[in-house]
Design goal:
The complex is a heterodimer of chains A (441) and B (247). With 441 residues, chain A is mainly β. Chain A has no helices and 37 strands. Chain B has a six-stranded antiparallel beta barrel with strand order 8-11-12-15-14-13. Chain B has a six-stranded antiparallel sheet with strand order 5-2-3-4-7-6. The radius of gyration of chain B is 17 Å and the shape is globular. The chains are: A mainly beta (441), B mainly beta (247).
């Protein structure tokens, strides 16, 4: 005999009676030991079963066992009156093992018609956190928090505690907790049950600049205070809220502070109790919102988009000028403009201005002239008229042409042409007539 | 001009004085083009160098002429061949100026003949020039631009006139062709003359003058029964336009 290497358990498989789908032989006793990895259980589903039917499955049968425990003894088929057919329901093993034993006797009057069975099995993950471990009545798997994983589970602890080396129990340890999610829940160790005495916990809520942390304490707040002539003071027990560049705030008593808007992206909470007294502790939900920037205002001859009721960190706004106007910033024309609300609550660029465009000095016309009919400084919508130096030149087409300063900064005629007109010479028409100089006949 | 009058300023703004070792005339037809008679430019044989051609325009008094305009090129009609001095057929030429002229009251082009140009006998035309004029019974070379109105003469009448001259023994008379027409009055005393060659014979139609003829040749000036002969411009419109376009 050779020692075979232990093969890795399968995650699924198939089991069939001997010679299936041909009729099974008599005098048979065959056993299958199925297993899947630890942390999984086996789900067995029959696709077909046709075993000689008998009351209590006396002659031929298939037995399904989990260890010594019989999960089922089956025979017959879907239509037989006798026997015990599993139907469509799968059989779920409590653990990662399952045994099938198929037994047949030596007399089988309908042998030709009984083909046995066919089934498949698959591994199903066990949710150890919600299911009681088989045969274990020692209590919850984890001291505080149980996380199911495929084939296993993990224990973890609330803030203020750390996981013991047994990977199941939690011991008090509440320094150095950093919370950088946008929202979350914090509470003192053991809350709402009184924790051990003389604890010193620190909670740091730290988000990137541009976000503001708000603390919302639950009503159930109890930190021992000491009454003095000046009123209650947080002498031995306290929760200190520290925001950068501001004086720390010590909280105690039985009145919940409610909502505290810190106006900071970083908040440090230090919870301290001494050897005496009684503090049940506190809990809070923290949330964050983005820093707000001032409303950008309006722009003459332009518009700001999008129009929002309020603008927050990382919001962008864009400025577009009305047709015929251009974006100007610091005396320079810019092609486009956008600005972002910064983490400090200021826009990273001030708003530009919209100045009216101009088409430049209209091109001069050979043997003609250009006159302004309306507008000034060659500005948008100014109208000029090109005319020829009459009576010596006449416009091609015989009409003077008006050009308007268009939004694309070109002078265009009413016919949408931006080519200058042509002045053609006038021939044979002296300005002074010979006949007018002499009246003699 | 015989029997004419002095032209006031700006009344014949197409008049050009073309001087090539002698006085001749021309007419402005475009802002860089002068039309004249071929013989004005080839009076002494081959076309002269452009530098020796002086062009003046815009003045009616030769004594106040400004700096002449520079000539870019000369284009003699290819059919002009007057080696014997008696063949004025195709007596037409173009002068291209180096610089563009801006038109004004004193300088304006004369229109080329309209497509349906007709030379009806009796139609009055106006011929002008700085050529020989009359003062009493004397012929003098004037410095003032002169003009005279004379009618188009029937081509057959004109032809007979020159035939009669030949019968009288004067064989040195040029041939009258269909590229020429005559203008003048039978009683004489109104005519173009030497120095007017190349100038325009202009017909006014609908208050607009067009170039009907170019002063070309004649036998004596202003004599009774003799007419002046003019190059018939209408026959050359295609050549004129082609030459200007190609150059």
């Amino acid at each position: 005999c050779w020692l075979l290497p232990r093969s890795k358990p399968l995650m699924y498989g198939e089991v069939q009676s001997p010679e299936y789908p041909q009729p099974y032989p008599p005098n048979l006793e065959q056993r299958w030991d199925l297993s899947v990895p630890d942390g999984y259980q086996i789900q067995l589903t029959f696709t077909h079963m046709d075993i000689e039917a008998s009351a209590s499955c006396y002659y031929d049968f298939l037995t399904v066992l989990y260890g010594e425990r019989v999960l089922g003894r089956f025979c017959g088929n879907e239509n037989s009156a006798d026997g015990h057919h599993p139907g469509d329901q799968p059989i779920l093993s409590p653990g990662n093992r399952l045994t099938l034993i198929f037994k047949t006797d030596n007399s089988n009057p309908e042998r030709q018609n009984n083909v046995g069975f066919s089934a498949y099995y698959q591994a199903i993950d066990i949710d150890e956190c919600s299911a009681a471990t088989p045969g274990d009545s020692s209590g919850p798997l984890c001291d505080q928090i149980c996380l199911n994983t495929l084939g296993s589970f993990l224990c973890t602890c609330h803030h203020g505690y750390k996981l013991h080396s047994d990977q199941r129990t939690c011991t008090l340890s509440c320094v150095g907790g950093v919370f950088n999610e946008a929202e979350g829940t914090l509470f003192s160790p053991g809350y709402p049950v009184s924790p051990p005495h003389a604890i010193s916990c620190q909670y740091i809520i730290s988000l990137q600049p541009g976000f503001i942390v708000s603390l919302n304490f639950s009503d159930n707040f109890q930190i021992e205070s000491v009454d003095t002539e000046q009123g209650p003071v947080c002498l031995y027990h306290w929760l200190q809220v520290t925001v950068p560049d501001r004086d720390p705030m010590k909280l105690c008593g039985t009145t919940s502070p409610g909502v505290i808007v810190t106006n900071s992206n970083t908040v440090t909470l230090d919870y301290h109790t001494d050897d005496d007294g009684l503090s049940r502790g506190w809990s809070l939900e923290y949330s964050t919102h983005r820093v707000r920037c001032p409303l950008p205002g309006s722009i003459a001859k332009g518009r700001v988009t999008p129009i929002l009721a309020a603008y927050f960190y990382r919001d962008y706004i864009y400025v577009r000028c009305d047709q015929g106007y251009k974006l100007m910033m610091d005396g320079e024309e810019i092609e486009s403009f956008s600005t972002m609300c910064q983490s400090n609550g200021h826009w990273h660029l001030p708003l530009p201005e919209c100045h009216i465009i101009d088409c430049g000095k209209p091109e001069s016309l050979l043997n003609g002239k250009v006159d302004f009919l309306s507008g000034s400084d060659n500005q948008y919508h100014s109208v000029v008229q090109y005319s020829c130096n009459e009576p010596f030149y006449a416009p091609l087409g015989h009409e003077n042409v008006n050009y308007t300063c268009d939004a694309d900064r070109k002078w265009r005629s009413d016919n949408n042409i931006h080519v200058l007109p042509t002045c053609l010479p006038v021939c044979g028409r002296p300005t002074r007539s010979l006949s007018s100089t002499s009246y003699q006949r | 001009i015989i029997g004419g009058s002095s032209a006031p300023a700006d009344t014949i703004p197409w008049q050009v004085l073309v001087n090539v070792n002698g006085r001749g005339g021309g007419m402005v037809i475009a802002d860089r083009w002068i039309m004249t008679a071929a013989h004005v430019l080839t009076r002494y044989g081959d076309p002269p160098p452009t530098s020796s051609v002086q062009i003046h325009m815009g003045r009616t008094d030769i004594q106040t002429l400004p700096t002449p305009l520079s000539v870019a090129s000369i284009h003699i009609h290819p059919g002009y061949n007057n080696s014997d001095g008696l063949n004025y057929n195709n007596d037409i030429a173009l002068i291209k100026l180096q610089e563009v002229v801006t038109f004004r009251a004193s300088i304006m082009p004369l229109c080329l003949p309209p497509q349906d140009a007709a030379y009806h006998t009796g139609t009055m035309g106006m011929v002008s020039g700085f050529g020989i004029t009359d003062e009493g019974n004397k012929r003098i070379l004037t410095n003032m631009l002169k003009y005279v109105h004379i009618p188009v003469v029937d081509q057959q009448v004109c032809s007979q006139t020159f035939a009669k001259m030949k019968q009288q023994g004067n064989n040195l008379i040029p041939h009258l062709t269909d590229n020429m027409f005559c203008a003048g009055v039978p009683e004489g005393k109104k005519d173009s003359c030497q120095g007017d060659s190349g100038s325009a014979y202009a017909i006014e139609e609908n208050s607009q003058f067009w170039a009907a003829g170019i002063v070309s040749w004649g036998v004596e000036c202003g004599k009774k029964g003799k007419y002046g002969v003019y190059t018939k411009v209408a026959n050359y419109v295609d050549w004129v336009q082609k030459t200007m376009q190609e150059n």
